[in-house]
Amino acid sequence: MKIGTKSVLFGAHCFFLHPFFVAMAWTKLYGFPFDPRLWIAFFVHDLGYLGKPNMDGPEGETHVELGAKIMSIFGKKWSDFSMYHSRYYAKNHGAQPSKLCFADKLSFSYTPAWLYLPMVNATGEIKEYLRNAKKAETEHWKPVEGQKIWHRQLSEYMIKWVDEHKDGRVDTWRNSNRHAITDSGVTS
Fold it and tell me: Which single residue of 12, 60, 119, 140 has CA 20 to 30 Å from 3?
């Protein structure tokens, strides 16, 4: 079973848990999600990880396309809403991240480590996440080792990133290839 499938079934993007954390974050940012289309988006936006061999690689980055296709039954606006929940996918396509992006990123901080870490260990996702956590060194992210430290730092990072960008400000923290942008403007 591919790692993306495991993620959707019982990992970081677990289809019966992750949508509720996204809804919690949405409520914090925008108020209670009364529109049923929002709830559908919360449940389908990450289904595209099914069958993917990685989470953050080229194949994993295309995970947004399935949710967008499903949401297209409500029109292009809703398709884009789901498609651009990935800040990297949005950047690569010259678009701004959707409001779903901010709720999705903030949802990480609502997912407690005691729940999240066993899930990503069971799927093996943690290996990719920790490998990526060692790469970037900017004022926003310092390389870390150790799962609990990583979870705590990423929670803080997501809260700060969402707070700084939720008003539509251009993301100057990372480029479209998942590389950190240093203070001098150079990517690492």
Answer: 140
The residues, any chain, with a CB within 8 Å of residue 123's CB and separated by 6 or more, are: 3, 6, 7, 10, 11, 12
Residue 48 and residue 62: Cα distance in Å, rounded? 7
- The Cα angle at residue 83 between residues 137 and 183, in degrees rounded to 5: 20
Q: How far apart are CA 91 and CA 39, in angstroms?
A: 25
Instruction: Give the residues across from 106 on adjacent strands.
Output: none
pLDDT at residue 146 greater than cutoff 60: yes
3-state helix, strand, coil in the chain (%, to 5): 60, 0, 40
E strands present in 48-182: none
Tokens standing for residue 145: 């080792």
Check: CB of residue 107 under 8 Å from CB of residue 12: no
Q: What is the pLDDT of residues 88-106, one digit of tens each?
A: 899 899 999 999 999 999 9
141 has a pLDDT exceeding 80: no
The answer for residues whose C-beta is within 8 angstroms of residue 22's C-beta and 6 or more apart is: 42, 45, 100, 103, 104, 107
Judged on CB neighbours under 10 Å (0-12, 13-18, 19+), 25 is buried
Average pLDDT over residues 39-65: 96
143 secondary structure, DSSP code: -
- Give the residues across from 174 on adjacent strands: 180
Residue 183 has pLDDT above 50, yes or no: no
